[in-house]
Every structure is written in C-alpha cells, then in structure tokens.
Amino acid sequence: MRKILLPALIIVGALLISAKLYYLQIIDDSYIKQSENNAIKVKYEYPERGYIYDRNGNLMVANQPSYDIMVTPKELSDNIDTLQVCRLLNVTKEYYIDKVNKARVYSPRLPSVFLAQLNKKEFAAFQEKIRRFKGFDIVKRSLRDYQIDAGANVFGYIGQVGEATIKKQPYYKSGDLIGRQGVEQVYEKELRGIKGVKYIQKDRFNREIGPFKGGIYDTIAIQGKDITLTLDSKLQQYGEALMFEKRGGIVAIEPKSGEILALVTAPTYSPSLLVGRERSNNYKKLEKDTLGIPLYDRGLLAEYPPGSPFKILTGLIGLQEEVIDENTAFTCRHGFSYGRGAFMKCHDSGSNKLHAGIYKSCNTYFANTFRLTIDKYTKPELGVEAWSKHLKSFGLGNFLGYDLPPGRRGLIPDANYYKRYYPNGGWRSSTIISNAIGQGEILMTPIQLANMMATIANKGYYYTPHIIKEIKDGEIDEKFTKKHQTTIDKHYFDPIIEGMYDVYNIGTASLLQVKDIKICGKTGTAENFTKINGVKTQLTDHSIFVAFAPKDDPKIAIAVFVENGYWGSRWAGPIATLMIEKYLKGKITRKDLEVRMLTKGLKEEYAKVTSGKPFTINK
Fold first, then answer.
1. Phi and psi at residue 527, to the nearest 5°
2. Which residues form the Penicillin-binding protein transpeptidase domain (predicted)?
C-alpha cells in the first residue's frame, strides 16, 4: 500500500500543478486584461453602432468616423514638446496639464481621452506627427450621422461614459461612448455592438514587438445590430413642422398594434447639435432655455388636465355603471349648478342626449353623469373607487410601460387621495365635480391621451405603446404584443364613437373635415395656471384635440396638446386633422389649415409671461 501511496501523491501533485499552470497561462487572462502589466498593451477596436430605420425602411440614423486622441501618462516622454502638441490640437497648455493630471489619477498605465471627436482634417494633421509624441495614441470611433433633421427626442444621443457607469459595468472604459436618452439609451446593448481587443507584447524597453502569444486572445469588433422603429419619419418631420412657434406635444399611435407613429415635442432641436466636439456646449445652451425647455419631452413628461376629451371616459363609465343610456337626457341652461353659489359654465343650452352631449361638448351632460356615477354607491369613496378603477384600466394614472426612458404617471385620484385632503370627511360628488370634464385633480400626458384614443378605436383594448418594431437578429419584448382589456364592455363604445364622428360632421370640429376620411374626434380646452413671481396666475387655456381615423377601420389615433392655444379647434384640431390626412393619404388637401399651422404660432402669447401683457381667459 505504501509503495502505491507515494507515487500516487507525486502524480496527483504534478497534475494539480499542471492544472494550475494551464489555468494561469491559458484560461485565466485577467492579468492581461487589467493591462497594468508593463509588458502588455491593450488596444480596443470600436465597432460601428447599429443603424436606425423607420417603419418604411427609410434610414434615419447612420454613422460617421471620429477620432479620439488618447494619452497614457506612464508612457509620456520627459522631453515631449507640449507646446507643439497644444498647437496641433488647438488647446491651451492649461488644458494639456489638466487632462494629463486627470488621466494620471484614473490610471498611469491605462489610456484616457485627451481630446475627443476630432474630424478627418484635425485627425490627419496630428497623425502625421504622432510618432514624435510618445504616450499619445489615436482611437477611431463612430459618431452618429442623422439622415433626417427631426426626432431628437426619440433618438436621444451618445456621449462619453461616466465614472459611475464604468464602475458598475466593466465593459466600458474611459472614453467609451454610451447611449443617453431615447432609443440610444434603451437599446444601448443592441446598438453598441461588441468591442474588439488586441493584446500587444512589449519588450523591456517598452517597445511593441508583436501580438501577445501570437494573438490567441485577440478578438474582432462586432458591429451593433440595426433596429427598425415604429416611427413614420415623414409624419414625424411633418408634425415638428406643424408645431412652428408653438409649445406642446403630438403623439400618434397605430391602434391595432400600439406602435408609435409620431412622437413630437415642441420646441425641439436638431439632433445633429449633440454630435461632435460642440456637443457639450450645445447641450448647455439647450439646458439654459428654461422657458421653451427643448430638452423636455412634452409628449411623455408633460402632465396636463385633459379637458373635454375626458368627457368620453365619463360617458363610458356612466354607461358601464348603468346610470345613463343612449337616451338619457339632461337639460342645460348654459351650465350646471352643483351647490349654493356653485355653477359650472357651459356654452350650450337645451335638452341633450348622450350623442349630442358629445358632439356639442356639453358640460352639464357629463357633470350629471359623473354625479350619478359617484352617487350610485352608498358612500362617495366607494363611488370614486369604482370610477378610478375604470379609468386605470385604460392605463391612466400609471406608467404605460413604453420603451423610452422618461415618463410620468399622470394622476387619477382615488378615495384615499380625497381622504388625505378631507381628513374629517364632508366631501361628495359635488365637491369633485370638475373631474367630470377633465379638470379638477386629473392629469394626463399626451401619450396617455393618445393611448386612450387607440383604446376607444379598438372598442375596449390596447397594446402597450412602443417605439421598437424590429431588431436585426433579435427579438422585441413580448409585453408589446400583450392585449390589455378595459373594464368597459365593447358594445358601450358604439354610441360614444358615433358622437365623436359627429364632432367632425356637425359639432365643434365641423370646420376641420377632410374629404373621403371619416374622422372621429373630440375638441378640448383646459384651464392653465402657473406661478409668476410666486403668485398663482391663470394663463391662456390649452388647446387640446384627440381623434382616430378612419371610423370603421382605425389606422391612426392621435392626441395634440398646444400650450396656451385658446380652444381645441383653433390650433390642436387643425394639427390633428393634417397629421391624419398626411398619414392616410400621403398628401394634403386642406391647404388652408396647413399654411396657417406652418406659418403662424404663439410666440407673442408665450412672451406674456415676461412682458406682463394680459392673458386671454375663457375666450
């Protein structure tokens, strides 16, 4: 046994040592990748980002070459001609010292960005003399090249990765580019591709002598995946043009799929401003515009009172709760009295049934409907809970789950909300009656309102709005194909849709008709308040319009908000009409509307905030 044991121990020991050596030399290359080893130099090859196309195959975002000057402090020569470096790169000596010091703090042996995003001409001038400047190197990267001058809020941009991200995600190194905002951020992993790596052996004099171990550890760069967006680039560009000198948002959705056709925010900016060496300066300028706020995506982030379009939901809930039917009538005497000295004004008069209530946009009709809905229950909190539940089934009061970074919940109050405001009780349907007409506490974003329209077009269901249509050699999230059903029965949508159809025929949008397109719509006007010098001030009302078309086979649902735009049919209505015709026909017949929207704006209206001129109230 002893004769066998000793040889066995020797053999086992030898195997363990061999295995460890194999692991260290062949499998474990972490010591290489750390590149703190003086004998190994790591060079990265950066892939092109994936291209971005619209739903019709039109190229929207491509790439252009860019060059970064990198510096490795440990390799800098003691007698380097710093003045010549500064002169060639058009930087100051202070800049040179600052960048080298920061690079030394990051890592003496790892390359850091000295000067980013040189163009071909700048790169060529430095490349000719780079051999004189030991410690400097050139890395080729690609920057975005926009094929359309629109969609900045959708695309986002790419910028240098921060230290916090580098610590969390080892894939990124100093100077790497990463997607920020928009689809560049959401689909960063797909778009960025995979870096290639080369390990270069150096001798004891720090001279490069060839690939480390014959290049067995080297990898090639893999280009990012191309993606196709749901966006219609022509519709997007047209929408941005229509918002000339206006503030607000436009969101258009394909009802049957939830695909976002256009996502417009105004004012906006050219996506090319955030490309190249001037990106940082341009971003700061955009950020300083605190009035127009071009970096603020109003289509996703702005929370507005929805105004009269909300009456559609008030009617649907009334039908579902069986407190009204199509033939229920209410008499309007230019408003609705809901308490001693409390009166909700209305431009209408006479007796209206549901159909007329919609196309005339009668406040009295929907105030009565809301009151009956809440008062159906033994306690107002029970009525509000039922009402709130119906609304939330439309995706309201919560994030919709779309594939873009920013978002807001909006606000759909429930019983707990009012209990906090009225801890001693005493509130009832009349206390919160403004909710009936989309005022009160209710807040919605334009994308929520557009999704509401898509749901009505579908008679009770919707798909999560999304911007991605296809990822080359990849799959989109299955949540975008999941149907969401509301709490409203399908047959209740028919009378509502008929009323919306007559909004265009004989109602508040009758002057916006388009030949051969049956459009269902709803105008809206929402009160608008802000604080000026600490004082709550009522501004000119917002102009709102929602619609879908065609009536019998809806292909587009849309919501338009125009801030300080007076009433719904003045600005938002024409824009919605033109967008619908552009998408369905590809051409415009309502040239009268188009000329006005493309050339007229609200510049003077917005200037009232600083000029002191009076705002137009309830006109």
1. -60, 150
2. 248-576
Do the beta carbons of residue 244 and residue 237 sit within 8 Å?
no
Burial class (CB in 10 A: 0-12, 13-18, 19+), 601: middle
CB 145 within 8 A of CB 61: yes
The Cα 324–Cα 357 span in angstroms is: 12
| Tokens found for residue 602 | 């609200």
d(CA 576, CA 564): 17
CA distance 550 to 457: 9
CA dihedral angle for residue 116, residue 165, residue 48, residue 207, rounded to 10 degrees: 60
pLDDT at 619: 45
- In the chain, DSSP finds a helix count (H) and a strand count (E) of 22, 20
Q: What is the pLDDT of residue 126?
A: 85
Cα R_g (the chain), whole angstroms? 31
The pLDDT score that the predictor gives to residue 599 is 96
The Cα–Cα gap between 104 and 265 comes to 43
Rounded-to-integer distance, Cα 273 and Cα 146, Å: 10
CA-CA distance, 58 to 60, in Å (whole number)? Answer: 6
For 615, counting Cβ atoms within 10 Å of its Cβ (0-12 exposed, 13-18 middle, 19+ buried), the class is: middle
Place of tokens 């920057």: 143
By residue count, the chain amounts to 619
Question: DSSP letters of 443-469?
Answer: BB-HHHHHHHHHHHHTTSEEE--BSEE
The one-character DSSP state at 25 is I
Q: What distances in angstroms separate CA 188 from CA 120, 168, 232, 289, 478, one per listed residue?
A: 26, 15, 22, 28, 19
Give residue 472's identity as a one-letter amino acid code: K
- What distance in Å separates the CA atoms of residue 555 and residue 454, rounded to the nearest whole number? 9
Query: 384 exposed, middle or buried (CB, 10 Å; 0-12, 13-18, 19+)?
Result: buried
Positions in the chain short of pLDDT 70: 1-10, 12-38, 205-206, 617-619
**Residue 194 and residue 204 in contact, taking contact as beta carbons nearer than 8 Å:** no
Contact yes or no for 602/543 (Cβ under 8 A): no
User: What DSSP assignment string belongs to 467-492?
Assistant: SEEEETTS---GGGG-EEE-SS-GGG
pTM of the model: 0.87
SS3 67: strand
Residue type for 391, please? L
Separation between Cα atoms, residue 321 and residue 390, nearest integer Å = 10
CA distance 152 to 273: 9
How many CB atoms within 10 Å of residue 489? 12
**Burial class (CB within 10 angstroms; exposed 0-12, middle 13-18, buried 19+) of 456:** buried
Residue 302: CA count within 13 A, CB half-sphere: 30
CB atoms within 10 A of CB 495: 19
pLDDT given at position 19: 58
Distance CA 136, CA 73 (A): 9
3-state DSSP assignment of residue 244: coil
Residue 330's identity, in one-letter code, is: F
